[in-house]
């Protein structure tokens, strides 16, 4: 159960989503509105704060989707979070858009192993592998951008039952034809800020936060190799 007072937002894809968890209640907005994020996001933040009878200064932390996704959308997420944090001196937590979708698969369906993806255009997808630990989806391999027909056993384990989510596999479902253990969940295609709350609170309680001036996007396109993270199997 989330106990912190959190505002979280994501504009990294064609979806715009905002969640406010305040005094045990959750207020949420999600819509697909390509190229309208910058006009809509602040009025929607104000709308949720008004519904909750909450002021920014009443919050503990602000979370933002830090990408990967569209370059413009990622920058909007970071810039809006920075602006809100500057005005209140609140700490920030960035959450991967891939982690958000993996967390949704776990919280909605109990999926323990998830391959989230986002269509990166130009015939590529943003891709990663997440596994659950203590009710939180944690990264197994570095997030990367890859042509979907290059996915092989170096990227996808063939033994454990897993779920694939996101627009990457909606666009390229045949990329998983060789992996009978992986099922595509077509209900989860875009990141939803509601599923940032667990990550934001965990980071906040651990002190893993940044100040506004240090908030950074995660574009991933610079990632050209696939490496196991330390301590992950």
From TrEMBL:
Q: Has UniProt tagged this entry with the keyword Mitochondrion?
A: no
A GO BP term, please? tRNA threonylcarbamoyladenosine modification
**Which stretches make up the Gcp-like domain?**
32-151
Note whether Cytoplasm occurs among the keywords. Answer: yes
Q: Which UniProt keywords apply?
A: Cytoplasm, tRNA processing
Q: Where in the cell is it found?
A: Cytoplasm
Pfam hit, one? TsaD
Gene Ontology CC terms: cytosol
Q: What is its main location?
A: cytoplasm
Q: Which residue spans adopt a coiled-coil conformation according to this UniProt entry? A: none
PANTHER family named among the record's database cross-references: TRNA N6-ADENOSINE THREONYLCARBAMOYLTRANSFERASE (PTHR11735), TRNA THREONYLCARBAMOYLADENOSINE BIOSYNTHESIS PROTEIN TSAB (PTHR11735:SF11)
Record protein name field: Gcp-like domain-containing protein
Originating species: marine sediment metagenome
